[in-house]
Design goal:
The chain is α+β, with helices and mostly antiparallel strands. The chain folds into two domains: about 240 residues, ATPase, nucleotide binding domain (Nucleotidyltransferase, domain 5, 2-Layer Sandwich); about 130 residues, Nucleotidyltransferase, domain 5. Helix content is about 40%, strand content about 20%. The strands form six sheets. It has a seven-stranded mixed sheet with strand order 15-16-14-13-19-20-21, with helices on both faces. It has a six-stranded mixed sheet with strand order 3-2-1-5-12-11. It has a two-stranded antiparallel ribbon with strand order 4-7. Strand 2 and strand 3 form a beta hairpin. The longest helix is centred in the last third of the chain and has 25 residues. The chain is globular, with a radius of gyration of 22 Å. It starts with a strand and ends in a 7-residue tail after the last helix.
Amino acid sequence: MSVIGLDVGTTGCKAIAFDEAGRILSRASREYPVSIPHPQWAEQDAEQVWALAWSALREAVAAVPGDPPIALALSVQGEAIIPVNGAGRALRPAILGMDTRTGQEVSWLAERWGAEELFCRTGMPMHTVNTLPKLIWLQCHENEAYRVADQFLLYEDFLLRRLGGQASISHCLASRTQMYDLGAGEWAADLLEGCGIDGIKMAPLAPEEGGVVGALRADLQRELGLQRPLLLVSGGHDQACAALGSGVVRAGRAMVSTGTAEVVEVAMDSPALDDRLRRANISIYRHVVRGLYLAMTLNHSGGLLLRWFRDALCRWEREQARDPASEQHGRDPYDLILEGTPEGPTGLMVLPHFSGSGTPWFDTESKGAILGLTFAATRASIAKAILEGLTFELRINLDLLRDAGIEIEELNAVGGGARSPLWVQLKADICRAPLQVPDVTESACLGAAMLAGVAAGVWPSLDAAAAQRACSARRVEPDPGRAAAYQERYAIYRQVYPALRALNPLL
């Protein structure tokens, strides 16, 4: 029996089918753009996302050898909001989580409800990333679309409505919106009413931990060539699904996911609503695993910064990797860029705030910086310094979580960054912690597939599915000598952002 996970991210989607041993049977992916029609805006054509996600799903299902998938679950980007009509089609582009237009709405919410009260109820710090201020913005600025909308959906419920005819949202994704009561485990009705939002227009909450929410529409089933119904199963936020796929199924386990952004997810038995976490902009929300909660840190840059360096300053390496006549043809350009990196700390210091800072500051005016440059600097040393700076940011967030009393026993590394031995070793050395690296680093798709598989009876439980995957992980230990050297550099790095904070707005 096979199952399929469909991961719908900010800039692309992936559909991956897995067998009962967790091995990849087929995969397909598509990319799509983010639109910036005005400064601070970030939107997306949700209908295009649907079409490309369906195209990827069709390709992946068609390529499965033997028995086709019996169940599907979604892993999706968080916070994006899509008003839809009675047919479930988008009335306007999705407003994405990275959109920052809602500063006034965030200020109103803080005055009306109180930042501390909202955090204690919803686990979400005050920020433009949240869905709630985006809905309030729609009320105020696009009232016609707001008024005629049949529902207000996020990507999970939007796609489930198109796939199965009815919208349904996981507790996990709902708890990313700032409209979900963590204690009650339901939509916060009084909060919605107080903000003028008709709660009936939000999707119904799905059964917890991968509950079946329907089946693929008959016409779509025929289009896929399936002889039996494809079960649709509740999934969740992409980072929570990735945490599950990496084996984060009990308190104390943590995941560091390095893709476009870099995210840490730490599992807890109960929501740690410590005010230090609120002030550090760390969100607390429901895991896709029943009974667990997650604390999430965020660095907006992540692999996006390394991609910028590749595209802007490493043209030769890109051309060599593409040129059939080159000895380097077919190699990963990143491997070429990082060849010859110095052993140990570089002597450079990179502040990776190229899109503002993530947690704990969320300073949208902060800028990137490369310090310590001399004529001895090379592309390889600057590239490694970028990895060091990103990992110093990771260490700051891990230290903050530990200081707030959140136990971290183990780090599981996933995402594109987990495929780089250099980067994984840097994480171990700088964070002074061992890392587990699974052989399947596409953990968001795997986590969604695990939810689908448990609901369909492929695995008896998420614990059993995760235990099966754990045996395929390799362990990376910190090197004592390098860890000591990086500890000294980390003490210097802690001073970089405070030193530049007053200068950045002037730039």
